[in-house]
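Quick question, first post here. What does this chain look like in 3D?
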Amino acid sequence: MKKRIAYLALFFVIMLLFFMLQKPCFMLYNDAPGRAVPFIGYLQVMLHGMSLDAATTGYLTALPWLAVLISIWFKKFPLRSILTGYYAVICLLVSLIFVGDMCLYPFWNFKLDASIFLYLDSPKNAMASVSTGFILLRVLIILLLSGFLTWILYKVTPRHLPPAQQRIAGSIATLLLGGVLFIIIRGGVSESTSNIGQVYFCNDEFLNHSAVNPAFSLIASAGKTKNYAEQFNFFDETHRKELFDDLYSTEGKNTVELLNTKRPDILIILMEGFGATMVESLGGVKGASPNIDRLSKEGIWFTNCYANSFRTDRGTICTFSGYQSFPDLSVMKIPAKSRTLPSIAGKLVKEGYCTDFLYGGDINFTNMKSYLLESGYQKLTADTDFPMSQHQNAWGVNDDITFDHLYQMLKDRKDSPWHTAFLTLSSHEPFEVPYHQLKEKQPNAFAFTDHCLGEFVERIRKTPIWNNLLIICLPDHGFYYPAEGNGHDARIHHIPMLWLGGAVKQPMVIEQLMNQSDLAATLLAQLDIDHSEFNFSRNILGSEYTYPFAYWTFGGGFAFADSTGVTLMDLNADRPVQETPSPNENRILRGKAILQSSYDDLGAR
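> Answer (accepted):
Ran it through. Tokens below.
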């Protein structure tokens, strides 16, 4: 068994080193010296990228591991003969991916992903920017590199494996080794699995990209990248544009000024699942939101807002980037696309704001980390920054602890202006919280978050920070409670939005029909900051906001709501599944125009 285990370990180490050594080569080829990357930067890239390198190596080790397992039951197993062809194939592929990624990065400025397959049907155009000599030299490098790596693996592979003396024990040991390999591939035993965002470690896009394993990037994106612009082509371009332009406008002056300053300190609290079904004043559960209802009377209370989607990763994009949601994909999980989006944080950074993000959970989940860093958040705080003794929730750290951390962080803050975003956690299943005010488990968890919010506001109100502070409370999505009726109807997507703080000019109730994605344009307009690149965000207080509506998506469909009612559209059946109070063809046409426009926009990024 020792010889078998030694072989697997040697194979793993060789492939891991191959991936790790790619990184300084990638950096040097792409002018790391010209970018003034210090020596420590190379080491940081290799260290932070090691987890994805190990996961990719784990995938490649799977077949040798299987061969070793089978060999236990043979007297003389010709391991080298069986695996030499496999070595040749994988070495050629990883060398091709490495060189391709390294050479394409100056043109694309993002890591190799499955979008390259969109260009294979036109190789002449794809290679039009480079010479024949350029291509031949790189082909030669690929062949030499793959040949050398194949030779090394060939040499370290035993020609034959001796018969195992204890076959049952050897098989069990090898299976346990396979379990370790599975954990490495998965990226650990936490909620999040291996993803590109986990290797991002700073605000330097080049260093983050350098840390990403290109083979993992290509494999991970293969099932997610499509020619999005070709999907849902309901109308010709002229008709689509007419319908869409009637709905979205980025022009027009504010009809009302909400703030007494143009440069407030801004805290956005993204409340996990805290939809209107949990807000008593909006028809929700009694007793679940006493603090939100109380605070709504002293701030700006948006009563007719709707979430664009149904999950945190999607709602986060809609909120912070003012982007549209999609029925069959999460933009956050496609870094090549999400990195191109505008963002509230990015706009504020250009205005001199310091930015940071706080979350008590795993910030690597669903590629959140990569999105946040790319969108302009300069510092991230997450579960790993809290001691394990405070991890009392299945998802991480409960809201009482993170709200206290937020308060301590803000009260000592000297620099201004600043923008902090905070994603709460406790109102997420399994709804286990250190709070017992309501009998039902789910509403009680929301009441706990509401309690933590109320305590935080009263504490921060007593500090000088309050005078220039704008707090925006907005859920990432709604919550299906009680579990009756259609899970995607207006009742479930209805969410509250509250602006409060010393920066608020006066209490006000705003009943305009809107989406959470409209926060970006509405907020930036109040700050006199251009928001024209937010294609799916409207300033709902602008003079051009003449057609109030809300739009949201769910698995296999979309919904469109306006003054005439609500239509839920099933895209698979190509028919409405709900029309309230009565059918309306215009709602369907407008919803389809938004859907088509959103895929066109995503495809162009």
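The longest helix spans residues 39-71.
Residues 525 and 587 are 28 Å apart (CA to CA).
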